[in-house]
Specification:
Shape: globular
Number of helices: 3
Length: 153
């Protein structure tokens, strides 16, 4: 999947560059305003969120871990919003870093490749949405049980 993103023409056009991150480096931060897409070539990274607790403290739970061949920042292909999560390097990470605005222009000019990329990204988003649905259902069931609401259903 996403083999189109490894095309040397993207490097030549200045759309992608190789980036290296060390263990514990923050690759992207929740709330950042940038439009970059990353394809991990080597190493692992953790996607985290920021959750406010009732007492005013915050925790940053790991949402998922990503490895070689996986992407993050894909939502920037579809909207111009700030980052919805942070990504931290668990290992030394080598990644392809794409300027999404330039990538969009390239894919518009090369619609066959654009179709392949968007089809692959759609599969990834669908899988992640299904995983989120399952986690949400489990969390909801736990909350009902934890607060004794399940016995009233």
């Amino acid at each position: 999947m996403l083999s189109v993103l490894r095309d040397q023409a993207l490097v030549t056009a200045g759309i992608v560059k190789n980036s290296i991150f060390s263990v514990n480096d923050t690759i992207v931060s929740e709330g950042m305003d940038d439009r970059r897409l990353y394809l991990i070539e080597k190493g692992r990274a953790r996607v985290t969120g920021r959750v406010a607790l009732a007492d005013g403290r915050y925790i940053q739970p790991g949402l998922c871990d990503l490895g070689p061949g996986e992407i993050f920042g894909e939502l920037s292909l579809f909207d111009v919003c700030s980052r919805s999560a942070s990504v931290i390097a668990l290992d030394d990470v080598e990644a392809l870093e794409f300027d999404v605005q330039a990538l969009e222009g390239y894919l518009d000019a090369h619609p066959a490749q654009g179709y392949i990329v968007l089809k692959d990204v759609q599969k990834i988003l669908t899988t992640r949405l299904r995983q989120t649905d399952r986690r949400w259902e489990q969390l909801f069931a736990w909350g009902l049980k934890e607060h004794g609401i399940d016995r009233h259903l």
